[in-house]
Amino acid sequence: MLPLFKTGDYMNMKNVLRKAAVFASMGVIVYASYEITKSYLEYSSGNSTYKSIDEMFVVSADEDETETQTGAQVPSNNENVNDDENDSLTYEGKTNKWVWDYNKLLKVNSDALGYIRQESSRIQYPILQADDNKYYLTHAADKSENPNGAIFADCDCTDGLQAWNCVIFGHNMWTDSMFGSLLNYEKKKYYKKNPTFDIYIGDDHYIYYVFAAYLESAKAASDAYKTAFKSEAEFEEWEKNCLKESLYKTNIETLNAEDRIITLSTCTKNDSSKRFVVQLVRGEQVID
């Protein structure tokens, strides 16, 4: 059988194919680099947005002479009480203070319910709520499109942050931004160092205490995501189950129908069928 190509033609074809493969590989590398750069810029833009929002509340200590006082009683089985020191920030030798102003946030986004802060982590974000649970997966707190998304309450929580159980979602970012740091609560050692969150609801400021952390099914009907209760007895039974689910015991040993719970939820690293939840109970009110 005669060869399909002469030897010279065959060698030329090999060279052409080799060059084509090289150019194709270069094209893939260029495209991948473009996508990586694009993603990085988008994530950086989101981080800048949230930094700008958080800095809206930073004022000179001289401008704010208010005193923090204890309002509502701390749960009896809590040993940790936050004070005003965590709200003091130092810039270029000057002490500045983070002062909550709900009206400022409403001007940025009328969907705002409040704010969640934890000085020991990167969690310092507005809490929003839309008509569905999809919008803020891809939109930042200023409503710009961004892969960071936002921290938002379940649209089914009609009472918002005053609900018996208000579920709040956030992405698990590889940079530990958004709710990426929540997975640190898998370890009790981390909980012991970070037992509280500051939650701002409307004009009010509360200290919330971590009482449970565990893996939960990603299904909406999963117990941790329950937001409607027929009675106080049903709610108290649900609270008991949450305490049992926790990976470890916390300072909170009992809960009751008077409590207000927040369930923080984020994705896990390796299992799309699971979510990691950290549950908080409202403690004392702080008078700013």
UniProtKB/TrEMBL annotation:
Keywords: Hydrolase. Residues 62-88 are annotated as: Disordered. GO terms for molecular function: hydrolase activity. It holds the Pfam family Sortase. InterPro entries: Sortase (IPR005754), Sortase_dom-sf (IPR023365), SrtB (IPR009835). The active site is at H171 (proton donor/acceptor), C267 (acyl-thioester intermediate). It comes from the Bacteria. This is Sortase B.
